[in-house]
Amino acid sequence: MKKHSLLFLLIAMFMAIVLMACGTSDDSAGEADNEDAEETADSNEGEAPDDTVYQIGATQIVEHPSLDAAYDGFQAAVEEAGLKVDFDFQSAQNDQNNAATIANNFVAEGVDLIFANSTPSAQSALQATSDIPILFTSVTDAVESGLVNALDEPGDNITGVLDLHPDSIARTVEFIDQYFEGATVGLIYNAGEANSVAQIEVVNEAVEGTSLSTTEATVGNSSEVQQAATSLVGDADVFFIVTDNTVVSALEAVASVAEEQGIPLLVGEPDSVERGGFATFGIDYYTIGYRTGEMAVEILTAEKTPADIPVEVPPSMQLFINKEAAEAQGVEWNDDWDNDAEFLEPAEDEE
Known about the structure:
Layout: H1 2-44, E1 53-60, H2 65-80, E2 84-91, H3 96-109, E3 113-117, H4 119-128, E4 134-139, E5 158-162, H5 168-179, E6 184-189, H6 194-207, E7 213-218, H7 225-231, E8 238-241, H8 245-248, H9 251-261, E9 265-267, H10 270-274, E10 279-282, H11 285-300, E11 318-321, H12 323-328, H13 336-340, E12 341-343
Parallel strand pairs: 1-2, 1-3, 3-4, 4-5, 6-7, 6-8, 8-9, 11-12
Antiparallel strand pairs: 10-11
């Protein structure tokens, strides 16, 4: 009887040891599973889920081909990066008060980023927020307009791409001096646009020491452009229209006067060449918009902040010529242009 009792005791002890071992194994497996889950959660922390939809407010001072091309390029860069984005496009219809209202509305809505396409739009956005990232383009002088303190040290929430190559105006003035020696250059611009005032100052500085002189007419809105052009007839031998949003939005009015009076029309960018300008040393607005979109992707995905991205200038420029406009404006053709220029066809009129 004692032998049986001892045997039962040994069997009971063995079973107890086995059960304890199984429990320990289960606990260890559970702890390992929990650790794996925690590591996965940690590795995903800070990553945007695949279904994140970003809200971008796009503000533009007025609609004309150059600004529209910049916005198209911006959208393309963001979409090609694979981000899901809701774009809210708002045009200020060339009204600074509207630009301020648009910017304030974007801030109230809590958009993730503001794309400011033009100097007035960027100024309004910066006045409206110091927190939401702002990316600008179609801005000529970001320092003079108060958007940034320095190109290589933008603000905490703003940076972008300029629309003026540093040598563009100087090259255009050199072109006029070479082929229209002794000409008086007629300048039409909106004195209320800081972007334009800065360019006119550069034009006048570039003219110093050449055979050229300048004469100016200012406008307050697009309805005054034709009258301003007409007022320069008799004084101006050549028109030079810089990238002034007000005048460019009504460029056809200047082109009409240029053709009627036989005055060559130099412009500030290729889209204006297509719309009746004779020539420009210009840049591609789609390209600068696209680069701005690439910056937006870096900011939205938290790779960089605006403060990490210096303001950029267009990478290159070249001579663009519209042969039909040259003929219509009585320009004497120079064979040098056949090799030096890229020729643009006139834009087709919308039905």
